[in-house]
Design goal:
By secondary structure, the protein is of the alpha+beta class. It contains seven helices and six strands, in the order H-H-H-H-E-E-H-H-H-E-E-E-E. Strands 1-5-6-4-3-2 form a six-stranded mixed β-sheet, with helices on one face. Helix 2 packs parallel to helix 5. It is elongated, with a radius of gyration of 20 Å.
Length: 196
């Protein structure tokens, strides 16, 4: 169960930058109307009826929940030192440069900013489908997570005699001897436990 929750959280947060892009595009394309709806709601207690307004705010709220949720989740994992597994590292490599696919998926919605007559509902549905594809493709995978990187985590591919692990750490690893223990986050990703 915990593995499912971990996988689900990491998979969901992979789509967060795309939702942030969607929300920002919605605000930029029709900022005057967006802020008028907010003003009308706050001053006159009028409930908005605009699909665009709801989708923009849902995108922002989803992004915020994922941003805070992944940080809380990883902090809780760091506290589980007793569950850590000891490994003897033969070599490792830095994987933090492997973020091009996620950056591209965040940039794609920005291409629509120049389309004057594009219906926001169509864009929203397309981005939702794109995010579903990203989520399905990354569920049983070791995809780079941009939110982890924003919080300062680095990705490492660690080789032992028995296995190869994808491990993340807040600390910059400069020597293989710095990697001694890790706690599993998912079947494919672990969190390096720093010695105190």
């Amino acid at each position: 169960m915990a593995s499912f929750i971990s996988k689900f959280l990491l998979t969901t947060t992979v789509t967060t930058p795309t939702f942030l892009s969607l929300g920002l595009i919605g605000v930029i394309k029709d900022s005057e109307n967006y802020f008028l709806v907010w003003n009308d709601m706050l001053t006159n207690a009028k409930i908005p009826t605009s699909f665009e307004w709801y989708s923009i705010n849902i995108s922002f709220v989803f992004m915020l929940i994922c941003f805070i949720g992944i940080k809380i989740f990883l902090c809780q994992k760091e506290k589980k030192r007793k569950e850590g597994k000891t490994i003897k590292v033969q070599s490792y490599s830095n994987l933090s440069q492997n973020s091009a696919d996620q950056v591209m998926s965040s940039i794609i919605p920005w291409l629509t900013i120049f389309a004057d007559s594009l219906d926001f509902m169509v864009l929203f549905v397309c981005v939702i489908l794109q995010c579903c594809f990203i989520a399905v493709a990354s569920y049983n995978n070791t995809n780079y997570n941009l939110l982890c990187s924003i919080w300062g985590y680095r990705y490492y591919e660690v080789y032992t005699e028995e296995n190869t692990y994808i491990l993340i750490s807040k600390r910059c690893i400069r020597n293989k001897n710095q990697i001694k223990k890790f706690v599993e986050v998912t079947d494919y990703i672990g969190l390096i436990i720093n010695e105190k």
